[in-house]
Specification:
3 helices; about 140 residues; 4-stranded mixed β-sheet; alpha+beta; 9 strands; 5-stranded mixed β-sheet; Immunoglobulin-like
Length: about 140
Amino acid sequence: MRQLRLRSAALLLLVLAGLVAGCTPTISAQRIEIRIHYSHFDPSELTVPRGVPITFVLINEDPIDHEWLIGDAAFHERHRHGTEAQHGARPDEVSVAALSTAETTLTFANPGKVLYICHFPLHEAYGMVGTLTVT
């Protein structure tokens, strides 16, 4: 009888451990491809979870250079009139040469919306704008 109780208790502990393990949220990195074609981002709308590292793979299929800058309204206002010809030292500011691919990884801490835009002359006006929603 005592062995049966011990086995039952051990089985119960295993079941509980499995349930607890199953309820523990796992955070794993994600990869998202964004294609640049005819001076547009595809997709132009994305949703990502907060607190998860996201690797953005930026594929420029155009025969001209572009940039991918992601941030809030104040960030973009600073860049609309900026003078930097190249980006790359900061993960939220990426230059993508013609017919090439670039990668960057970001983790968004706060929910909300941010924009990704190419600020080369007239590119934003032409429609090189995307919206990223962080949930």
